[in-house]
Amino acid sequence: MRRFWVLLILFLVALPMVGFSQVKDVSLYLDFARFRYDNEKSLLEIYYFIAPKNAEVEGERWFRFNLKNKENGEVLATKTLRVDFQKGDVEHDASTAKRGMLKSVLPTGSYVLELMQINNITDEIVDSVGYPLSIKPFVGDRVTLSDLEICSNIIPNSPNKDSDYHKNGMDVLPNPTRIFSMSTPRVYYYIEMYNLNKKQHDDPYHIQVVVADKEGQVRFKKDYRRPRKYESLVERGAFDIRKLESGLYTLIFALTDSSENYSVYRRENFFVVNPKVVAVSEEVDEEGFRKSEYYTLPESIVDRMFEEAQYIATPDEVKIYKSLTNVEGKRKFMYNFWKKRTQHDPEFKDEYYARIEYANEHFSYAKTPGWKSDRGRVYILYGKPDQIDHYPSESNTLPYEVWFYYNIEGGVEFDFVDFSGFGDYKLVNSTKRNEYSDPNWRRLIQGNRF
Fold it and tell me: Which residues pair with 391 in a beta bridge?
C-alpha cells in the first residue's frame, strides 16, 4: 500500500487544476463538481469567481456562461452576468468580486463549460476560461465517488435549506480559486460515496485522505474505516494550512475495499499563499545572485519583468510571486525563475524579451503595449508565424488576420479579428491544443460594425 501511495502522489501532484485566466485585467476562475442525481443523470455544480486583477480596474463588465454539447457545439444553457468593479479593489479582497454557483442535471455525454468576458456592445469575447467534462452515471456493483469538492468552509447542521450551497444538511461553500491564505487558513473538502453495500462483506472500507506537496511529500494524512451498512455516505473534513509554505499542493481522497482488492480515489490541486512561512520557494545561489542583473534592480522593474514573463510562468509561480512582500524576495525569485529556464537553453531569455520588444513595436494599440495584445501573446509564445494572411476591412467584413505555424502540432492557425478598427486584433479561434477554439469564428467578421 505504501508504494502505491508514493507512486500515486508523484504522478498526481503535477497534474493541473481547473483552469483560470489572468491574461486580461479581470481574473476568471471556474470550477465544477459532479454528483449522483439518479441512475441515469448526474448533478453538475458549477462554481465561479470573478474579480479585478489590480486596483486600477473599475466600471461595468459583462460575463457569460455557456454549457455546450461537445459533439455538435450546441449551447444547452447560457447565463449572462453584469459586474460593477470599484477602483481600489484587488483580487481576492475585492468587495465587488462576483462569486456564485450554477446547477444543471445532465445525462451521460461529453460537454464543454465556458466562462467568458464579453464586450456588451459587439458581443466579442475579451477573455475566456473553459473546461471539457464528461458525465457518466454513478451506478455499478462497486463503490463510486463523486468529484472531490475543494471548499472555503463547510457549516454542518445548517438551517439554511433554501441556499444554493445547502446539501445533506450542511452549507458547503466552494472555493473556485483554490487559493488559501492566512485569511482562509483551512482547506475544507466534501465528497460523496455511492454503492457502498452492493457487496455482502463484513470488512469495513479503508479511507485515506492525504495532502502532498509538489515534490510528492505527504504533509498531512488521515487514515480511518467506514462500515458497509449504508448505500451512500458523505465525507467532509479540513486541514489547517498555516504551517505550509507558499506553493502548489494536492488533496487526495482514496477508498480501498480490501475484500474485493479494489481502490478508487479522487484528487484536486490547491494553492497556499503564506509569505510568513517562506519568502522564496527555492534556495538561491547567493554568489550568482549577487553577480546578476537582479541584485540591484528597483522593485518596479522586477514587477514589470515578472508581469512580462507571465505567459511562461506556472500558476504556482504566479501565486508565489504575489505572496512576496519585499523587493529582495522578488529579485531572488526572478533570478531563480530565469536560471531554471536558461540552464539548458542559455539564449531562451534573450529570445523571449526580443519577442516582447518586437510585439511592442508591431502590435501596440492605444495605450496598450503590444506584449499584452492577443497577437503579441501568440508571437511571444510561438515565435514568428510561417505565414500571415492579411484581410483588410471591406464593405461587409471586418479586418482580420490568419497566422499559420506549420511546425507546431502538424500545422496550426490563429485567427484574429479587429472589431474596433484601431488595430486591436482579438484572438477568436485557434486550431492549437489548449488555445481558444471557435470553428464558426468567420461569422464574426461579417458586417462592418465600426
Answer: 400
Residue 429 near residue 441, CB atoms below 8 Å? yes
Task: Look at the block and give the residue holding cell 504533509.
Answer: 219
Pairing of strands 170-174, 166-167: antiparallel
Specify whether 197 is located in the same domain as 292: no
Q: Establish if 206 belongs to a structural domain.
A: yes
Task: Please state, as a whole number, how many other Cβ atoms lie within 10 Å of the Cβ of residue 165.
Answer: 19
Q: What's the Rg (C-alpha) of the chain?
A: 24
pLDDT, tens only, 162-212: 898 999 999 999 999 999 988 889 999 999 999 998 777 778 999 999 999
- Regarding whether 272 and 152 lie in a shared domain, the answer is yes
Q: 157 and 42, same structural domain?
A: no
Same domain flag for 195 and 240: yes
Same domain, 160 and 272: yes
Domain of residue 35: give its range: 18-136
3-state secondary structure of 303: helix
Residues 6+ apart with CB under 8 A from 280: 320, 324, 329, 332, 333, 336
Report which residue type is found at 151: C
Chain segment 209-237, per-residue pLDDT in tens: 999 987 788 899 999 999 888 899 999 99
Report if pTM > 0.90: no
Residue 8 lies in a domain: no
The CATH number of the domain where 24 resides is what?
Answer: 2.60.40.10
Burial (CB < 10 A; 0-12, 13-18, 19+), residue 223, is exposed
- The rounded distance, in Å, linking the Cα atoms of 331 and 294 is 5
CA-CA distance, 196 to 199, in Å (whole number)?
8
